[in-house]
Amino acid sequence: MAISAAAAPTSAREKPRLSFWQIWNMSFGFLGIQCGFALQNANMSRIFETMGANPDDLAFLWLAAPITGLLVQPVIGYMSDRTWSPQWGRRRPYFMVGAILASLSLLVMPNVSALWMAAGMLWVMDSSINISMEPFRALVGDLLPSKQRTAGFAFQTFLIGLGSIVGSSLPWVLTHWFNISNQPEPGHIAPSLKYAFYAGGLLFLLSVLWTVFNTKEYPPDNLAEFEEEKRRTAGLANGFRESFMGIFHMPRTMKQLALVQFFTWFGLYAMWIYTTPAVTSHIYHTTDTTSKLYNEGADWVGVCFSVYGGVSAIFALLLPLVANATSRRFTHLVCLVAGGLGLVSIFFIQNPNLLILSMIGVGIGWASILSMPYAMLAGALPANRMGYYMGVFNFFIVIPQSIAGVVLGPITKHLFHDQTIYTIVLGGASLVIAGLLSLRVEDADDERKLEAEPVTLPAAAYDAPVETDPRL
Asked: pTM for this structure?
């Protein structure tokens, strides 16, 4: 079944505004999801190096993350579009299953004892996190009217930022506040890192369950048509085919955003893989993974990642105001350039404390990356294909990461002679290019001059007046 690129967003009725607490509940699961991702992003290179990986092997070992996203997210989006239960709704069953599997994976990961085990667990863990994460993006399009979508994605970004703070800083906190050792025995994971993964697994499960049990979803506008379409498109094989053919039937805005996303996520992938080896070698001047100095540097990278998460949480609350005063495209340009310059600045730093300034720029970029593309995209999508197209859009997150996983290792080894700091600079340049390309994106909501909804804490605007929809 082909889906026309010209299909306009349709809905049987305009969605009512949601209150502050309704948006809080529907977004809260992202706190735990991002805590899991933050633990992964800040520590997988550290785990791989502890298990004996060389710096030029890291990009290849990280390939599990984008490949699992490529396979899982589009199919989960397609399936969740075709799911409905009066008790469990459309997206919530996938939230719950993914949360259970991801939490178990986070418990197992720090107990690996060989490089192949760590690489294999990354496949399992990333697949599980993606099962929970993908439907959250579609939920904003499902439940929020167009005027609240920028605020909805910004609110998700706020909670993602909080999750980043917790997940990224946990190993450092456990070492410096609770005196849990951060030095591993050869071939084993440091105790502080083990307990950080355990705590992250618990937070992941509890936060997602909060959303599952405190959010109601709209039923299909026409249940008979919904069941007929589900019958015609039944089967996992059809889901794979539809998902991967969707790349040829994209709305124009989605095609333009695809190029922006390519350079964005190429740069982010370079940052996540190479920040730990770059900081420990370029600033701490060590590559010995069992040394106290290396592990101090690796812990500090986690703190720095928590800083960019915290900055993104704060800046996310300002994004709707900035976008309303200018445009989503210009806002995304400024934020991505700030993130790119933040990464490039690491090359000039020798005092670890100054990395905080670099991460402020990265945090501004991260806030926009997690909200502006999705806000621009949601206005161009058919309402009954929101999960499907959000899943297809994920191709342009995982494809650049997959390419980076193949090319960054050889580039780092042969062009940069294993000087990983230059790979970080390359990632920063990629973010700047993405920012410039964002000016080419056609944003239907901007063109209709819809009023952006600001997010404030507390936000009286979310609490009254709120329309009640009889389908909830």
From this structure: 0.71
